[in-house]
Amino acid sequence: MDFLGTILWPLKWVVELLLVSWHWLLTFFGMDSAAGITWVLSIVGLVLVVRTALIPLFVKQIKNQRRMMEVAPQLKKIQDKYKGKRDQLSREAMSRETMALYKNTGTNPLGSCLPLLVQMPIFFSLFSVLNGAQNSKAGVGPLNATLAKEFGEARLFGGAPLHSSFQSAMNDPAGPQVLVMIIAAIMVVVMTASQFITQLQIVSKNMSDETKASPMFKQQRILLYILPFVFLFSGFAFPLGVMFYWLTTNIWTMVQQFIIIRNMPMPGSEAAREREARLARKGKLEPKSDSATIVVEERKPVQRQQPMGKNRAKKAGGTPQQPGGTAQQPKKNDDGSGASNNTPRK
Amino acid sequence: MIVLDTLLLVPRNIGLAILMLYRRWISPLYGDVCRYYPSCSAYTLGSIQQRGLLLGSLRGGIRILRCNPWAAGGIDDVPPKKHFRYTTTTRGFVVASTQRKG
Fold first, then answer.
1. Whole-number mean pLDDT of chain A?
2. Bridge partners, A269 (sequence order)
3. Which of A95, A112, A199 is facing B33, going by the closest CB pair?
4. Is A112–B73 a contact, with Cβ atoms under 8 angstroms apart?
5. Chain-centroid distance, C-alpha A308
6. What local confidence, expressed as pLDDT, does residue B13 receive?
7. Per the CB < 8 Å rule, is B28 touching A112?
8. Is B71 on the interface with A (CB under 8 A)?
9. A117 touches chain B (CB under 8 A)
C-alpha cells in the first residue's frame, strides 16, 4: 500500500461504512438493491452525514460572526483610517490592526485553516472509494466485492451505469452511449453552475468595500470566471457516481453560504447593507447588536460648538461648558484659521 | 562558496515557488480564512525563507495546527533567524549573499 493509501485507509473505511449502511437502510425500506437510484441516494446520504458532522464548526463560525456585529464600529474606524490607501504597506498595516482587534475582543470571524486541510483527505478518500467502486473494485472494509460490483453496475434510467463518465461513454467500443453522455453533460453544467453561484455570492456580496479595493480582489474576480471552465473540462472525466457526490456537496455549501450571508453578513459589505435595509423596512432593526452600532455612530456628529473669539469668551465668562469631548474644542479653534472665519466680528 | 550556497538553496527556492503559485492561484478561491496575521501560507513562506524547506515546512505545519477553530488568532509573526546569511530578493526568493563578512 502506498503512503497516501495508508493515511487515507481509516477515512476510506468510514466512508465505505456510511455508504453501505445507507444502501442497507434503503433496501430495508423496499428499494431495489441493484437499482441506480438506490446507490445515488446512498451517495446523497453519505454527503448528508459528512456535512452534518461538520455543522458544529459552521455554528461556531456563525456565533463568532454574530459577535462581530458588536465590534463593527471599531472595525469601521480601522477601515476609515485606511480608506483609499491601496499601497501594500498600508494594506498590511490594516490587516495587522484588524487581526489585533479580533484577538483583543475575542471575536475572530475567520474560519481558520485546519478544517480546510482536514476536509481535503475526506474528499480524496470519498473520491477513491467511489472511483474504485465504479470499477467494481472491492473497498478496504465494509464494501465487499459483491457490493462493489453491484454499485459499479447500477444503472440510471435503465442504461447509464454509475461507473461511466462522459469520456468513457464517448469512446465506448460498442459505439457512443448517448444516454450517459446526456446525463453527464447536464450534471457537469449543473455542478459548475452551483459552484459558480456559491463563489459569486461570496465575492459580490459578502466582502467589505475595503477588501474589494485590494489588489487581491481583482485576482479573485478573474479566477471566479476562469474556474468554471476548468470544472467544465475536468468534469467530463468524472464517473457519474462521483459527480452525484460533488453536486450534493455543492448544493449543501450553497444553501449554507446563503444562510450565512443573509443573516450574518460581513460588516461593511453589500449583504450587510441589504440586511439593514430589509430590517428597516420591516421596522425592526435588531434590538441589541444593531442599536449598539447606531448609538456609536450617532455620537460622532456632535453638534459643533460655535467657536468664540477671545473677547467674547471673556465676556461669556462663566457659561457652563459642555462636558466631554467638547472641552478640548476651544483650544483647538483658538488659533485655527477656521475659527477666525466663524467668529462673529464686532 | 557562492556556488555551494546556491546549490544548498535550491530546495527552499523550489518550495517557495510552489507556495507562491498556491498563493497566487489557489488561495484566493477560499477568500479570507486564516485567524492569524500573517496568514498561514505567508507564515510558511517566511519560515521557509528563513530556515529552509524542511524546518520551514515543519514550522508552517505547526502553525496550521494552531490555526484551528478554537484559537484566538491575532498577530503571529515569523520569528526571525538570528544569523541569516542569505539575501531575500524582492520577489521573495532566497539567494546567496555576494558580500560576506569575514
1. 73
2. A208
3. A112
4. yes
5. 54
6. 93
7. no
8. yes
9. yes
The whole-number pLDDT of residue A317 equals 56
Per-residue pLDDT tens digits for B2-13: 888 888 899 999
pLDDT at B60: 93
- Paired sense of beta strands A155-156 and A160-161, if any: antiparallel
pLDDT of residue A339: 38
Q: Which grid cell is A329? A: 474644542
Question: Which residues, numbered 5 to 24 in chain B, qualify as contacts with chain A under a Cβ-Cβ cut-off of 8 Å?
Answer: 24
pLDDT, residue B56, reads 93
- What residues of chain A score a pLDDT lower than 50? 288-301, 318-346
**pLDDT computed for residue A294 by the predictor:** 42
d(CA A94, CA A210): 10
| A170 grid coordinates | 464517448
Distance CA B42, CA A323 (A): 48
C-alpha cell at A28: 430495508
Distance between start and end Cα atoms, chain A = 96
| Contacts B25 to A, Cβ<8 Å | 223
d(CA A13, CA A39): 18
Cβ atoms A68, A107 nearer than 8 A: yes
- Which residue in A93, A107, A121 sits closest to B35, CA to CA? A107
pTM of the complete model: 0.64
Q: What interface predicted TM-score (ipTM) does this complex get?
A: 0.80
A266 close to A208: Cβ distance less than 8 angstroms: yes
Residues of B within 8 A of A62 (CB-CB) are none
B91 to chain A, any CB pair closer than 8 A? The answer is no
Stretches where chain B sits below pLDDT 70 are 29, 99-102
- Closest residue to B73, CB basis, from A61, A103, A116: A103
In whole angstroms, what separates CA A295 from the centre of its chain?
A: 30
Q: Kindly report the CA angle at A61 between A60 and A64, in degrees rounded to 5? A: 90
